[in-house]
Amino acid sequence: MESRRSKSAAYTTLLALAGIAILLQGVWAGIFLEHDGKRDAAGSWIDMHARGGEVALALTAIATVAAFVRVRARRDLWLGAAVLTALLVGESYIGGLIRDQGKDTLTAVHVPLAMGIMGLSAWLLARSRRTRESTGVVAYPGSVRRDTRSVSLDFTK
Predict the structure, then answer these.
(1) What is the pLDDT of residues 103-136, one digit of tens each?
(2) Is 148 domain-assigned?
């Protein structure tokens, strides 16, 4: 029973780490955006932002697999994580276009998409902590003791 709980908790841990990486993306972006158009002055922070995006994407992809394997009954978690992974792939692609091809006009898409990604990440993390009482599904199947007694209801009276 304990091993199932710890394996199920892996999803929440991975998603929390991905959420931290996603939050740091905003910090690093803020640092290099202060240089406004002077890419040479902000080069190392732009590189840090790119590496952080890769870390967030990897952690989210692993969390998606963990959710699918360990808490498959919680479709909200694994489908949400899959959507988050897909959004991070798109966000990384757009960021690459901005960085490598100088398509700065895409920043108008990149930044709002980042805000949505941050919101989805926080929502998924909050959902991962919900239990059977609030969702009808157990977040960590091994953590709840199941009552195996049957109940007989007589409605003939």
Answers:
(1) 989 999 999 999 999 999 999 999 888 765 555 5
(2) no
Q: Which structural domain range is residue 132 located in?
A: 2-143
Q: How many domains does the chain have?
A: 1
CB burial of 77-87 (b: ≥16 within 10 Å; e: otherwise) equals bbebbbebbeb
Query: Is residue 149 a part of any domain in this protein?
Result: no
Query: Whole-prediction pTM value?
Result: 0.76
Helices (H), 34-106: 39-70, 75-101
Q: Is residue 150 part of a domain?
A: no
CA distance 130 to 42: 41
For 80-107, what is each residue's pLDDT tens digit?
Answer: 999 999 999 999 999 999 989 989 899 9
CB neighbour class for 2 (10 Å; exposed up to 12, middle 13-18, buried from 19): exposed
In a domain, 91, yes or no: yes
